[in-house]
Amino acid sequence: MEAEQGEVVALLGPNGAGKTTTIRLLDGVLTPDRGTSRVLGLDPVTDGNGVRRRTGVLTEAGGLDDRLTLTENLVSHARIRGMGRAEADRRASEMLERFGMGSIAGRQARGLSTGERKRVSLARALLHHPDVLFLDEPTSGLDPAATRDVLDLIADLASEQGATVVLCTHFLAEASRLCRRVAILDRGRLLAFGRPADLAAGLWTGLPLDLELGAAADASLVSHLRSLRGVVSAASSEAGARVVVSGRDVVPAVVAATVTTETPVFSVVPRPPTLEDVYFALTGRTDAEP
Amino acid sequence: MKGRDWGAMFAIVSKDIGAVRRAKGVVLPMLLVPFVLLVVLPFGIGLAARSVHNADLGSVLAKLPGDLAAPIRRQPAKQQLVILVDGYLLAPLFLIVPLMVASVLAADAFAGEKERRTLEGLLHLPVSERDLFYAKVIGAWLPAVAVSWVGFVLFAVVANSTGWSIVHRIFVPTKLWIVMIFWLAPAVAAFGMGVMVRVSARARTAQEANQLGGAVILPLIFAAVAQSTGLLLVSLPVALAIGALVWLLAVILLARGASRFTRDRLAATM
Predict the structure, then answer these.
(1) pLDDT, tens digit, 9 for 90 and up, residues A64-79
(2) B104: nearest Cα among B209, B249, B255
(3) Which pTM was predicted?
């Protein structure tokens, strides 16, 4: 798998898939048993500090020290990253303001809400203008409004600042919204990497259609539909039928064939496979079919 | 060998000390023991010595090594008790202070980072494992030595002022105290660090580390107590030699701790 500058790539997978481990490997925190990786052209195994100087990480726990103030949490990391005192203070102040935490910058981190902790942790990860940002479950525990804010911010970081973002998430909708390409992992293995549509094309042929007929299609209609040229499969569904055709050009023939059996057609809705369909098909967690 | 990143190390030391200062659960017990040992105890002894006129110290002085007993025997009889206790017997007991403070701070610096889930954030920073390790050691060792030294200054003030009416001169520090303060106390603090670094690698919380570390450190505390009650008395050369041995053990323990302090190992425990 690879990510280009300014791209947001999602690492998807169930618990224990290896998402966090992948981030640790890419940031040189863990040494791989085998295999190689390059981050910004650097080898995380041999030049871990070189990599970490140019990456920012939001860990799942956030990692704020409850005993320190918000400013101290940011300034200490900035100083460890080599910033001078004045620059560290200035950047910490800027970032806390940007994330709407400036008014409580002098408060200890103890007692912050989950959303506030995420925002401060994200501010800390961005202190040094990282070229690559690793975000481990950035929206877990956030309310819908805070989630939207964080997702907007991630999109801005990539599109406006050219940061490459590697996003670990459980939330497929989040990945669909932000990412052009996704990597699907399970039990430590990369199952697939690419655009969801391309991954779906590799899994299934044809375009699924939902035919709304007012009632489940009877066996004779299903059989008739299956016999049509360009129909890959047909099956009865609760409200009508689910038909997979080879392309959009087959849709009129399907409708015509249905109407000729004096079955009313209320609607025909194309249902291209979603990321969710791809995810569940690849991880085998359900018998998903688009 | 790559040079140290002193700036990053200083930042880590500052962060750790700043955080500990706000942790009442760490600071209070850390200051309470030195206060009792170095302020309350000499104060009580000073007051008691005023009311004792003819203490028979012959049997105790007979157990002392010659080079320690001789200067005490030369003093007037009524001064011998306070000089013996404040000047000599309490000196080894004082070693509990750097040992305990270093142990508590080391447990907080290493196991405590895991417990607070702040360790991973540190591992993702551009700082070498050695720099991170030494910064954390220094961040616990410096306060341990500082508390010991400040505690000793208080002790000297209390001992000399409460004993002034008997001795009529400044009698603390003695040579044994000087050795304890500048040679043994830093060594014992480093040794406590070395033990706790090893223990903290296995523990998931600071409390667990303190419990595990206590099994190692308690016998040493008992040895110090035994020494202070006259069971184990050392001469200056022996104290210097013990200090060298403790330093050697501390360096070995810390060097081994440093070699095991790798991101791979730490990440495995997160």
Answers:
(1) 999 999 999 999 999 9
(2) B209
(3) 0.84
